[in-house]
């Protein structure tokens, strides 16, 4: 085989993020120095403002007070209980919404009739702040887990539907025709072309759903619940217990960050072909 | 004609009121390399797509051996103008899509596909993703993918038009080398007249409005053909002859496009 340099030139295939993996704290500092500095600086400023400028536990808790509150809540086991309840509500609702959302997205992409029938509801409900209906769901489904699950589903399902449908519809007709030229049937075209091509969109919808789902859990719990992080926050607010309130918020923030970055990791694993 | 591979009889195609192809008839022998040239809008790509089964004709029949063609199939390998590689599949999985769709992707087929990738000069690139390859390399995968179904007929729709001039010349010699090894019957659509002359046994020159075969030019040049052949007087005479056949049509179509 002849090897003309200009046709055999290949970019090195290593994705940027996976560059040379050098361990060690120095390397870590070099890469994340500014982020680390910004976080530490922000926490110090927060500590200063709450201790010196505000100087009242009724209005603002400092990071150190929050940490102490978290340790105390963890020692009594209350924090673990609240986290468990909220996590169960989130995951049942999130998984159900993902399945329903992807299924509805598929339906809308596959037939004109379904698209027409569902589109007004999807657009309307996506634009509506359905979180305002949370009190209603509590009335219908009670103060237990099921009402929170319903609120999470309602909040998460629409971005998933919309992204799934959009992803399937943006499948390149050229790619479809190419696979069709080899005699592929419509089922093969769906599984070998449309679905893989829509995956990045579906992922984006699922990622959007994380934040919305967390909001759903907390707000639904605020309106009425027996346990959960939202209830911890609302009770602490009633008692002007700022350290406990912030403890709940910090756990939620950590959960959001962890799940979003977990998703980013999963995306890199499942969709390695993307830039 | 001895050993007719492809037989087109009375083929016509209308898009609404527009006569894109009118009464095309031609035979292609087994192992022949045919190019189809013509001004834009002469329906050369439509003709190729009908033979590929990607479009229906309005009248007439296409026969491959003795089978009448009425849809896509793995007896034909289509090489598209854009490489159309599936970005989430690596090179090997892209090249194997035909056998996979046909339900016969096994280890034996796998080694056949690997040797095809070697044939097109991509040995060792099996696990690269399309975005990691240059345009020329992606077109090689495009060709290997079409060859992987071991087609009776290779249909190529301006496969080198998106490549830069130098890469295109190299790809032409590579295509001839690959073709000499398997002697597939090839239909090659292009608007580059020199490309058509360089590659082909015969060139079908189409005219436009309606699209029809104006002339079939036999290219009587010895094989194998080095690139230097393009600078010989015989070669230039063929290019000149074909250019004169379509010059008037091209002028009209250029004027129409700018109107």
Describe the structure.
The complex is a heterodimer of chains A (275) and B (259). With 275 residues, chain A is mainly alpha-helical. Chain A has one domain (64-270): MetI-like (MetI-like fold). Chain A is built from ten helices and no strands. In chain A, helix 5 (134-141) crosses helix 6 and helix 9 (229-238) packs antiparallel against helix 10 (242-270). The model of chain A is unreliable at 1-19 (pLDDT under 50). Helices cover 37% and strands 25% of the residues of chain B. In chain B, strand 4 (59-64) and strand 5 form a beta hairpin. In chain B, helix 4 (107-119) packs across helix 5 (135-147) and helix 7 packs antiparallel against helix 8 (233-258). Classes of the chains: A mainly alpha (275), B alpha/beta (259).
Task: Give the gist of this structure.
The complex is a heterodimer of chains A (275) and B (259). Chain A has ten helices and no strands.
Total of helices of chain B: 8
Structural class of chain A: mainly alpha
| CATH homologous superfamily caption of the largest domain in chain B | P-loop containing nucleotide triphosphate hydrolases
Radius of gyration of chain A, in Å, reads 24 Å
N- to C-terminal distance of chain B? 44 Å
């Amino acid at each position: 085989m002849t090897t003309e340099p200009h046709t055999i030139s290949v970019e090195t295939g290593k994705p940027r993020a996976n560059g040379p993996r050098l361990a060690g704290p120095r390397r870590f500092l070099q890469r994340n120095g500014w982020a680390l500095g910004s976080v530490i600086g922000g926490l110090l400023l927060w500590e200063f403002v709450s201790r010196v400028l505000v100087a009242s536990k009724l209005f603002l808790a400092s990071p150190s007070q929050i940490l102490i509150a978290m340790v105390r809540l963890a020692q009594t086991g209350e924090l673990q209980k609240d986290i468990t309840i909220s996590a169960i509500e989130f995951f049942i609702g999130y998984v159900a919404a993902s399945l329903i959302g992807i299924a509805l997205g598929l339906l809308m992409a596959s037939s004109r009739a379904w698209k027409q029938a569902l589109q007004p509801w999807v657009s309307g409900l996506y634009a509506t702040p359905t979180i305002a209906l949370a009190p209603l769901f509590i009335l219908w489904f009670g103060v237990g887990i099921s009402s929170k699950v319903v609120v999470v589903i309602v909040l998460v399902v629409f971005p998933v539907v919309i992204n799934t449908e959009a992803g399937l519809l943006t499948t390149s007709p050229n790619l479809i025709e190419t696979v069709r030229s080899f005699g592929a049937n419509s089922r093969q075209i769906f599984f070998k072309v449309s679905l893989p091509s829509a995956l990045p969109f579906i992922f984006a919808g699922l990622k959007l759903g994380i934040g919305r789902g967390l909001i759903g859990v907390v707000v639904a719990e605020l309106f009425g619940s027996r346990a959960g992080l939202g209830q911890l926050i609302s009770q602490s607010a009633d008692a002007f217990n700022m350290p406990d309130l912030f403890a709940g918020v910090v756990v939620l923030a950590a959960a959001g960050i962890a799940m979003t970055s977990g998703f980013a990791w999963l995306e890199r694993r499942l969709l390695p072909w993307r830039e | 004609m001895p050993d007719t591979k492809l037989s087109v009889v009375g083929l016509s195609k209308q898009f609404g009121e527009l006569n894109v192809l009118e009464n095309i008839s031609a035979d292609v022998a087994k192992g022949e390399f045919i190019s189809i040239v013509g001004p834009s809008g002469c329906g050369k790509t439509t003709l190729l797509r009908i033979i590929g089964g990607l479009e229906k004709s309005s009248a007439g029949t296409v026969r491959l051996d003795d089978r009448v063609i009425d849809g896509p199939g793995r007896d034909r390998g289509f090489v598209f103008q854009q490489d159309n590689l599936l970005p989430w599949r690596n090179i090997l999985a892209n090249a194997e899509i035909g056998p996979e769709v046909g339900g016969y992707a096994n280890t034996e087929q796998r080694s056949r596909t690997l040797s095809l990738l070697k044939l097109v000069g991509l040995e060792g690139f099996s696990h690269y993703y399309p975005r990691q390859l240059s345009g020329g390399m992606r077109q090689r995968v495009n060709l290997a993918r079409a060859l992987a179904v071991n087609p009776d007929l290779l249909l190529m729709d301006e496969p080198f038009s998106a490549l830069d001039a130098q890469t295109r010349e190299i790809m032409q010699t590579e295509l001839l080398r690959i073709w000499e090894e398997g002697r597939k019957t090839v239909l090659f659509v292009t608007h580059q007249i020199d490309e058509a002359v360089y590659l082909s046994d015969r060139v079908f020159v189409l005219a436009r409005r309606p699209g029809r075969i104006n002339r079939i030019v036999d290219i009587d040049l010895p094989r194998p053909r080095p690139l230097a052949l393009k600078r010989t007087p015989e070669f230039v005479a063929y290019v000149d002859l074909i250019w004169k056949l379509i010059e008037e049509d091209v002028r009209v179509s250029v004027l129409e496009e700018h109107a």
